[in-house]
Amino acid sequence: MTGDRRLGSFVVVTGGLGVAILAAASADDLAHLAHLAQADADERWRATGILLACLLLLVAGIAYRAASLDQGRTFRELLLRVSAEQQEQQRRETLHREVLAVMEPGAMHMVFQPITEVGTGRVQGYEALARFPEHGPDHWFPAAEEVGLGTRLELRAIELALATGLPRVPADQYVSVNLSATTLLDPALLELIDPGVGDRVVVELTEHSMVAVYDDVVAALPALRARGVRLAIDDLGVGYGSMGHVVRLSPDLVKIDRSLITGISVDNAQSSFVAAMVAFTAAIGVSLLAEGVETEGEAQSLHQLGVGLAQGWHFGRPSDLGPTPEPARAASPGSVSATGLRAD
What we know:
The protein is α/β, with parallel strands linked by helices.
C-alpha cells in the first residue's frame, strides 16, 4: 500500500473462554483496498492478501461469537469480564502496597489490655493489640491474608508487641500475642522469642484457625514450650473444634468469647455454659479467662461462677502502658478465690 494510509485497528481480547480477534475496517479502508485491486500487479496482490486476512478474521469472529452465545455470553459480557478482572488485579496490587506500607516503621503500633484476677484486681499480664493509622485490625489482617502477607503482618505485630511490651511490663507479668495457626508453624516465630523471656510470652491461637493444620500445630508446640512459651486457646465457644481438641493441645489458658459473656448477669443459659467451662477447665488443670467484661454485674457473676481471669473495659482499656501501667479494678468481694495463669 502506498503513502502513510493504514487500515483500521486490530484488537486482541483475551478472556476465560478463549481468544477473540476483532477486525475493524472503515468504509474508506475498504474503498482504498478496492482501488488497490485495480492498480498494478504488486498492489493487487497486497490488496488481495489484506482482504483475505480480513475475511478470515471476520469468520473467526463470527465463529467465536457463536460459541460465546452458546455459553450464554456475548462479546459485551466478555469485555466487561476482562475489565472486571483488570480492576480486581489493580485492587489487589494496591492492597498489597498498602499492607506493606503499614508494616513500615512508625506505621503500626501496639496497645496493651490488662488481664486481671477477677476477685483481687491484680494484673497478671497484658494482651497486645495492633493499631493502625487508618482502619482497624479487622481490616488489615484479613487484607494481608488476601494478598499473601498474612503471616508477615502477624509476625511484625508480634515483633512490636514483644519489643515494646515486655520492657514496660513487670517481670512477674506476661505479654499475650495473637496469631493464626499458619504463623505458629512459621520458623520465624521462634526467632522472635528470646529464650530468656519465653516464660513471659503467651501465644493466643484461635480455635477455628487450627482446623486445616491441627496435627501440624500439635507437632509444633513442643518447640515453643521448650522456650517457656505458654499457649492460650482464644474464642472458645465460637470455634469449630471440640473439647477433645482442647484436651489434646493441653493449653495453659482458655478464653471464653465475649459473645458468651455480654449479659451473663441476666442470662441463665450463658451462666450455665460458663459454669460448665469452669468445671471442665478445673478438671484438666487449665486457667479460664472471660473476654469482653464491661460491667460490674458481669464481673460479679463471673466471680461467683468461679472464673479466675478476665479482661474488658471494666478492668482496663487498651493503652500503650506508658512508664507505669494503670492499676486494674477488682470485682466486688465474693466467696470464690481467683486463680492465675497456670505456670509449668
